[in-house]
Amino acid sequence: MSPVLTAPIVSTQWVADHLGADDMVLVDASVVATTLADGSRDWRTGHESYQLDGHVPGAVFADLPGAFSNPTSPLPLTRPDEAAFEAAVGALGITNDSCVVVYDSGRGQWAARLWWLFRAFGHDEVAVLDGGWSAWRREERPYDLGVVTRPPTTFLAEERPDAWADKRFVEQVVAGDEDAVLVCALPRDEFDGAPTPWARPGHIPGSRAVPLDDVLDEDGRFRRDAELRAALGTATGDRRVVVYCGAGVQAASDALALHLVGHTSVSLYDGSLAEWAADPAAPLVTAA
Prior knowledge:
Layout: E1 9-10, H1 12-18, E2 24-28, E3 31-35, E4 41-45, H2 47-52, E5 60-61, H3 82-91, E6 99-103, H4 109-120, E7 126-129, H5 132-138, E8 164-165, H6 167-175, E9 180-184, H7 188-192, E10 208-209, H8 212-215, H9 225-232, E11 240-244, H10 250-260, E12 266-269, H11 272-276
Parallel strand pairs: 1-7, 2-5, 2-6, 6-7, 8-12, 9-10, 9-11, 11-12
Antiparallel strand pairs: 3-4
Helix pairs in contact: 4-10, 9-10
């Protein structure tokens, strides 16, 4: 029988207790992000580290910048369409009956991004390993080297349009024509106007800053309920929340934090500042 998820995150002990369980699929979603000489950012798969440095026993690998993104989009890391998502998930041996647990070797934002994709395409039996690969290794839990594959399967997606917000909707929020809270997951210095890889610095007017440091503790685990509520502030009310960042990845961690405190009326602005800042007419605000 497949393990039953009761929250959008699971502990390292929970995963250890369920290793080898029927229908549980562990997924390593690690990505290596680098800043190029011109200040732009580049993302490549973390498959080499997964293979050579190790992974949670039984974990398959998900190529987020490749199979789980849209290669034809002019924006980075844009979500795939429904057919592409179905193909990518099926190739990992995941079915609609699978219990999926995702982790990464960073601060969890890549795992959160894949968690969001699964939920946005209609699969709720998915959780993020709290603390990720770092916590697993710090606790000296078992790990494997090499590559794990599962027989390909069929996965049927059912996209939830409300999981996403487009630029037009965000423009309406800024203009006061739509009632929603904007939450920005950028590092606080970038929120305030420090140089960024995007076309212009700053944040979308009216946004609340909730960087990763506000929702994660020093060990990379999500903070507890009261701390999360304090960090999220007015975003935990009844209003719809639109989360964004630079390329729609860190924003997924804020979306996960909101779900942890029971706020599920959340949309992710997939284009984020990669799209917004590229439009000279789109307003941005800095602390100065």
